[in-house]
Amino acid sequence: MLLMLRAIDQAWVSAFSESGLHDLYFSRLFTELWLRGSGAISKTEAYDLVKEVSLQTAIKYVRRAVAEGYLEELDHPEDRRSRLLRMTPRLLDRMDRMIAALQAAVAALDAGR
To answer: Which of 11, 75, 79, 112 gives 20 to 30 Å between its CA and that of 41?
Structure first.
């Protein structure tokens, strides 16, 4: 089990380390967005996905993800005062790389048993 946790960490870092977005809070944000699919969510929902930090810190994480091109802002179709967020192709590509690296690590762990 601990080897699996190490493999997850290594896969995440290998996919996101060059961007500087490899810490736990980006992991939680990006993973939760990926699990929800390609649809857009409100900024407020995105802030709630950055766990264990203050709202101000969560806002900083979301803003940085937008500024780095991993999330994009969209107009809300029903509320002109609100903005929505969704994953960009850049983030989807990184998540695919991370999952592929994790699958390879799991296969190597299974082969070593």
So the answer is: 11
Burial classification of residue 19, based on how many CB atoms lie within 10 Å of its CB (0-12 exposed, 13-18 middle, 19 or more buried): middle
Give the pLDDT confidence score for residue 113 in this predicted structure: 67
User: Of 94, 100, 91, 86, which Cα lies nearest the Cα of 36?
Assistant: 86
Q: What percent of the chain has pLDDT over 70?
A: 98
As given in the structure block, the two tokens for residue 67 are 């500024």
Contacts of 5 (CB under 8 A, 6+ apart): none
Phi, psi of 87 (to 5 degrees): -70, 145
CB under 8 A, 24+ apart: contacts of 108-113: 109/3, 109/4, 109/7
* Domains defined for the chain, CATH in brackets: 20-111 (1.10.10.10)
CB 71 within 8 A of CB 92: no
Q: What is the pLDDT of residues 54-67, one digit of tens each?
A: 999 999 999 999 99
CA–CA separation, 44 and 63 (whole Å):
12
